[in-house]
Structure formats: C-alpha cells, structure tokens
Design brief:
Layout (H helix, E strand, L loop, with lengths): L1 H18 L5 H5 L13 E9 L3 H9 L12 H6 L22 E3 L6 E8 L3 E6 L4 E9 L4 E9 L6 H35 L1
Antiparallel strand pairs: 1-6, 2-3, 3-4, 4-5, 5-6
Helix pairs in contact: 1-5, 3-5
C-alpha cells in the first residue's frame, strides 16, 4: 500500500523519464515513421538504445517478433501469465523473415490485432492495431558506431473515463517501461552477440 501511494505521489516527477527512457531529446520529439497514422494520441512513449552493430544485423530480430514467432525478447514468463504465447528466440529464424505489409498477429486470445502498416527494410517497421488506437514503430538510425533503435508507441484512449486514464498512467506506463526496456536490451544483446560470433 505504501509503495503504491509513493508511486502515485512521485510519478509526475519521473513520468518524462519513464516515457522517454534511453531516448535523446531529439529522438523523443522528432517525427518518426508511423506518427501520421494516429494524429492525436493520448499517450506517446519514445524509448531507445544504442546497438553496436549496423541496422542490417538488427533488422532480422525485429521482423521475426511476435507471438508464435520470435517472441518479444522481454520477460516471457510475465507475458505468458497473460496467455500471450511468447517464447523469445535466441537465434534468427529464417521462416519468419518474410514479413509483408498487412501481416498481423493477435496479442493473446482477446488482445489487439497488430498489423504491419509500414515496412522500410533496415529502417522502419510500424504496426497499427486494427481498431486504430495503437501505433507501434521501430526505427533504426545509423549513428557511426552502429545504430540507434527507437521504439515509439502512440496510444489513444477514446472515451476512457478519468479512473481508466489514471490507471493507464500510473500502472500501464511504468509497466510498459519495465517490459520495453528488457525488450530493447534483449535485442541489443542478441544482435551484438550474433555479430561477434
């Protein structure tokens, strides 16, 4: 109870860090592919990580992501408590490399369907939920040493009452950081390890 109260009391002080973990000020505010698919989101997160390999070595890990595919490289046990069928691969899986616009997967039995809305090989992969309320973009930017991997979520909360919006802010936003940080670190570890091997 004390921890929950402390989070509610202090979250406004560290919310920006939560929403932009790892991103530079430029990355957090610069337009990215897919932004135009949801012009007026209720929440935007932009998180990023530097990876010491070129985009060509990162791209295969992105295109194979998803349930029943390469997983999400995060805490599988948490996702599978929610019956999301996530099993994060530790190798590039050739059978999942032929991703196309319109390909889709559902997050769980009742979760949203995420469909490939934009695909610019080795540059940008953008998913949009079928209901139009969520856009998730992965962007690769070469940086001289390797690449920056930027993950941006744009989420609408249409018609949500104040309690639902508060729950999303205080519970889902920090929770998404925990999962997404692990995902970005997981992609970095896998891509750098494979390149070194």
């Amino acid at each position: 109870m004390f921890a929950a109260s402390a989070e509610v009391a202090t979250y406004p002080l560290w919310r920006n860090w939560c929403l932009t973990w790892g991103a530079t000020a430029y990355e957090a505010t610069d337009p990215l592919p897919g932004d135009e698919l949801l012009a007026d989101p209720g929440t935007v997160t932009t998180r990023a990580i530097g990876i010491d390999v070129p985009p060509t070595a990162i791209w295969p890990w992105l295109v194979q992501m998803g349930p029943g595919r390469g997983g999400m490289y995060t805490y599988d046990w948490i996702q599978n408590l929610l019956r999301l069928n996530m099993h994060s691969a530790d190798e590039v899986l050739p059978r999942f490399q032929d991703l196309k616009i319109g390909d889709a997967h559902r997050l769980g039995q009742r979760g949203p369907v995420l469909r490939v809305a934009m695909l610019d090989p080795e540059r940008a992969l953008v998913f949009q939920s079928d209901d139009g309320h969520w856009v998730w973009a992965f962007v690769l930017e070469p940086d001289g040493k390797g690449a920056r991997l930027i993950s941006r979520n744009r989420i609408a909360l249409p018609g949500a009452a104040l309690p639902a919006r508060a729950m999303y802010m205080y519970l889902m936003e920090p929770g998404s950081l925990v999962m997404e940080r692990k995902m970005l670190l997981g992609i970095k570890r896998r891509a750098e390890r494979l390149a070194a091997a």
